[in-house]
Specification:
binds manganese (II) ion; 2 domains; Aminopeptidase; Leucine Aminopeptidase, subunit E, domain 1; single chain; alpha/beta; 14 helices; binds zinc ion; binds ligand BES; seven-stranded mixed beta sheet
């Protein structure tokens, strides 16, 4: 799908579909007013009949409206004008895109991007338009022999303005958003691929592909490298599996060499059976998504490289399976991590923190400016925050604030949880430096507290995406979150310097 921004006249634009915004009570946006005037009041007449409520997300499709050059007109409800904000804007984008998906129109003049969102410039609208449309058009049918529906006809969307030409910032935002959408799509597809296809080796191959395509640096550590380094925790998790473990390091350099990199560590458990502490059978298939952190790191690097962002970033991905093989770790086993600290593995299903603690210790050697880890880490986080907010933990408040602001901006939101010392005692072990689980209370916090023991010397934040990286139920599938957040964060941080 091609996107562009142009100043156009709604009445004279020859297009497959004119997309116009209306508020309840027949209140027209500027573009809709111009079109209505050219159509001698035909739009107001339809609205007066009560065919479109104007509620955010409501749509009405008209064909061949006399006086307009467009083949079709799609009226889109934007909700009450005084309540118009990020949420209603996004609802309108999603609904309009879902209608366009089913049409024969090859192009669209999208006039609903200029509606003013309080506190935001046009660049914000542009980003959310592109990301919303691309989200609606995403398909994952590569594993079906019979495609459900034909490919949508829509090939180009013009973000149309009635007034002055778009500022350079808006054009820049368009380019950034397209690259971000490519990154989101990559993360979604990796998440949706089943564990028999998306193995640790597959993730490594995907990283190599990105490296070739975008001229990134790539390095893949094999089992023997992990053994030499002493990654006892990562090796413990992989020991029950037939799949070779990989530690993927992918480097993008978009800023001066001397700039310390942002290091993104992504949990890459390509299937989490729980290991010997086996998970129940129901819904275990969902544990193919347990590499979503890794997918979001690959997606974010793809986005940053695709837009040539002025940042230095390194992705570090510990990838393996968590399986109950004959050589698997057993509850009570004690292992020595790369940091030198020992861990008593009381529950083999708390494997994410085991692979992450070695990856975080490895990340420290890359002299990072800051380290973020991204992980589908705990069911407890889903209980606490549901599928709306990602759990945020940080050892520096400024970093937490930046992530919170970037998440709000990207509408890929996070909510901060405490990382207080008081929780650390739940990780006490009689046999090692610590246990890998802290019991049921505050499960997502004790998981973060465990990771904090491996990030002492770092500016570090942890994102628990167990509830936000994928959806269950009828709409089951990967979301591509938190790629939009991570990209926003990296760009805002670069701009703030
Ligand atoms: N991958 C899971 C967390 C998870 C659960 C993600 C549900 C998405 C949905 C993780 O490895 C895990 O099993 N965590 C355990 C930790 C417990 C044993 C302390 C959990 O949350 O139950
Ligand atoms: Mn687990
Ligand atoms: Zn897991």
């Amino acid at each position: 799908m091609e996107f562009s921004i142009k100043t156009l006249s709604p009445e004279r634009t020859r297009t497959g579909c004119l997309v116009l915004g209306v508020h309840p009570g027949g209140v027209l946006t500027r573009a809709a007013q111009l079109a209505d005037r050219a159509a001698r009041g035909a739009l107001r007449e339809v609205l007066a009949k009560g065919d479109l409520s104007g509620k955010s997300g409501a749509t009405l499709l008209l064909h061949r409206v006399p006086g307009l050059a467009a083949e079709r007109v799609l009226l889109v409800g934007l909700g009450e004008q005084k309540e118009f904000g990020p949420a209603t804007f996004r609802d309108a984008v999603r609904s309009a895109a879902n209608v366009l998906k089913e049409l024969g129109a090859k192009d669209a003049a999208w006039f609903i991007a200029e509606a003013k969102v309080p506190g935001q410039a046009l660049a914000w609208n542009v980003r959310h338009t592109v990301l919303g449309v691309r989200e609606a058009f995403y398909r994952f049918d590569q594993l079906k022999t019979q495609k459900k529906a034909p490919e949508p006809a829509l090939a180009s969307v013009t973000i149309a303005l009635t007034g002055a030409p778009a500022a350079p910032q808006a054009q820049r935002a368009l380019k950034e958003a397209v690259a971000t959408a490519d990154g989101v799509d990559l993360a979604r597809t990796l998440g949706n691929l089943p564990a028999n296809i998306c193995t640790p080796s597959y993730l490594a191959e995907e990283a190599r592909k990105l490296a070739r395509q975008f001229k990134l640096g790539v390095e893949v550590l094999e089992r023997r490298d992990m053994e030499k380094l002493g990654m006892g925790a990562l090796l413990a998790v992989t020991s029950g599996s037939q799949q070779a473990p990989k530690l993927i390091v992918l480097r993008y350099r978009g800023a001066a060499k001397g700039r310390k990199p942002l290091v993104l560590v992504g949990k890459g458990i390509t299937f989490d059976s729980g290991g010997i502490s086996l998970k129940p059978a129901a819904e275990m298939d969902e544990m193919k998504y347990d590499m979503s952190g890794a997918g979001s790191v690959l997606g974010t690097l793809r986005a940053l490289a695709g837009m040539k962002a002025p940042v230095n970033a390194i992705g570090v991905i510990p990838a393996c399976e968590n399986m109950p093989g004959g050589a698997a770790i057993k509850p009570g086993d004690v292992v020595t991590t790369l940091s030198g600290q020992t861990v008593e593995i009381l529950n083999t299903d708390a494997e994410g923190r085991l692979i992450l603690c070695d990856a975080l210790a490895y990340a420290e050697r890359l002299a990072p400016d800051a380290v973020l880890d991204i992980a589908t880490l705990t069911g407890a986080c889903v209980i606490a925050l549901g599928h709306v907010a990602t759990g945020l933990f940080a050892n520096e408040q400024r970093l937490a604030d930046e992530l919170r602001a970037a998440g709000d901006d990207a509408w890929d939101r996070v909510w901060q949880m405490p990382l207080w010392e008081d929780y650390q005692e739940q990780l006490r072990s009689n046999f090692a430096d610590m246990a890998n689980v802290g019991g049921r209370p505050a499960g997502c916090i004790t998981a973060a507290c465990y990771l904090a023991r491996f990030t002492g010397g770092l500016r570090w934040a942890h994102l628990d995406i167990a509830g936000t990286a994928w959806k269950a139920g009828r709409e089951k599938g990967s979301t591509g979150r938190p790629v939009p957040l991570l990209v926003r964060f990296a760009l805002r941080r670069a701009a703030a310097r």
